[in-house]
Design goal:
The protein has helices at about 1-10, 30-35, 55-65, 80-85, 100-110, 140-145, 150-155, 170-185, 195-205, 210-225, 230-240, 245-260, 285-295, 300-320, 325-330, 335-345, and strands at about 20, 45-50, 65, 80, 90-95, 115, 125, 130-135, 160, 195, 230. By secondary structure, the protein is an alpha/beta fold. The strands form four sheets. The protein has a five-stranded parallel sheet. The longest helix is centred in the last third of the chain and has 19 residues, at about 300-320.
């Protein structure tokens, strides 16, 4: 992304046509707006149009405008987006979805900077800079005869490639801060506090929806957890709302699993027994529970349960010689769930 920023700085002062490629939600319009803001045209308009969102029969009128009486409903002359963007920048998003007949007319506009309104005869000149973008592979569309090769070479003057979010996971903490600050500036309540575990959960996701998906998840978190701390499990539930992690169910399952070992010492804690808990009480062993509570000072159930999880995961991984799948079967859980817990607690495979 530093390379992308550097290219934006270099091309912005020029008048060159820019072609931005990247998956949906990766921030193509943000880059286009940055180019406009850093150019000499920043006092002019920035006009964005999604070429795939406007019906084919209306796209020509939207782009080039129309004359009165040119078609049913055209009751007066109307300037199109080309004219409205004069002196500024016209951002043609999803240009790969533009119909072939419109591609011919756009090619002429790019070459001559002139166009004719629908139903008109007068050629209109306009001073506009073009920034085009798409998430599609235009070379494949050219091979399929769905995109004009001459138009591709006309817009591919200064290409900028945006990588998907899954290839730049290190950007997530910065993006999170930026997005949450934007939310608060827009009048959202107090932003939630994302723990290191929550950031780890975000980094473990594949992000098919890229930065847009990240923004949606953070907006959901901001609405549900105003000013509250969000841990790994909570964030995992926000990322995959169809498969939430139930903390109560998870805790009950752990206690049930260790109940048969109530009389056996179990080392706990990230490095063994540093936390000083000598044994895991069974669900019905009230005396053992009272002993732990009395000897632990300021007892924290969440930390204690986490320590038990760590101990069981470490032993299962060691017995399975590092095989996550085998350890998951031994623990009676899903492999993906075990991987999430290993990330949550910072547990690596044994050497």
């Amino acid at each position: 992304m530093r390379a992308v920023s550097d290219m934006v700085d270099k091309v912005a002062p020029l008048g060159s046509t820019v072609f931005i490629q990247g998956p949906s939600g990766s921030g193509k319009e943000i880059v286009a707006r940055a180019i406009h803001a850093k150019s000499a045209r920043n006092s002019g308009p920035f006009v964005a149009v999604n070429c795939g969102a406007i019906p084919r029969e209306l796209l020509e009128s939207e782009l080039f405008g129309h004359e009165k009486g040119s078609f049913t409903g055209a009751q007066k002359d109307r300037a199109g987006l080309m004219e409205l963007s004069g002196g500024g920048t016209l951002f043609l998003d999803e240009i790969g979805d533009m119909p072939l007949d419109m591609q011919v007319k756009l090619l002429r506009m790019l070459e001559e900077r002139t166009f004719t309104r629908v139903g008109g005869t007068k050629a209109i000149s306009v001073d506009v800079r073009f920034v085009c973008a798409t998430h599609r592979d235009l070379r494949q569309l050219i091979d399929a005869e769905k995109f004009r090769e001459d138009l591709f070479y006309r817009i591919n003057v200064f290409p900028i490639l945006l990588p998907p979010l899954k290839e730049r996971l290190a950007d997530i903490p910065t993006l999170v801060r930026f997005i949450l600050e934007r939310f608060e500036a827009q009048g959202f309540p107090k932003a939630p506090i994302l723990t290191d575990g929550a950031i780890d959960a975000l980094k473990s996701h594949d992000w098919p929806g890229n930065v847009r998906e990240l923004r949606n998840i953070l907006e959901r978190a901001g609405a549900l957890f105003v000013g509250q701390a969000i841990d790994f499990a909570t964030m995992a539930g926000l990322i995959r709302p169809g498969q939430p992690i139930d903390r109560v169910e998870e805790t009950d399952a752990i206690w049930a699993a260790v109940s048969e070992f109530a009389d056996d010492p179990i080392p706990v804690g990230p490095a063994g027994a540093e936390q000083g808990v000598a044994m895991a009480p069974g669900a019905a062993d009230d005396s053992a529970i009272r002993q732990v509570l009395s000897e632990s000072g300021e007892f924290n159930l969440k930390d204690y349960v986490s320590a038990l999880e760590i101990a069981f995961i470490r032993v299962a991984l060691e017995d399975a010689e590092g095989s996550v799948s085998a350890a998951a079967r031994r623990l009676g859980t899903q492999r993906t769930t075990l991987i999430e817990k290993m990330r949550k607690f910072g547990i690596g495979r044994p050497d």
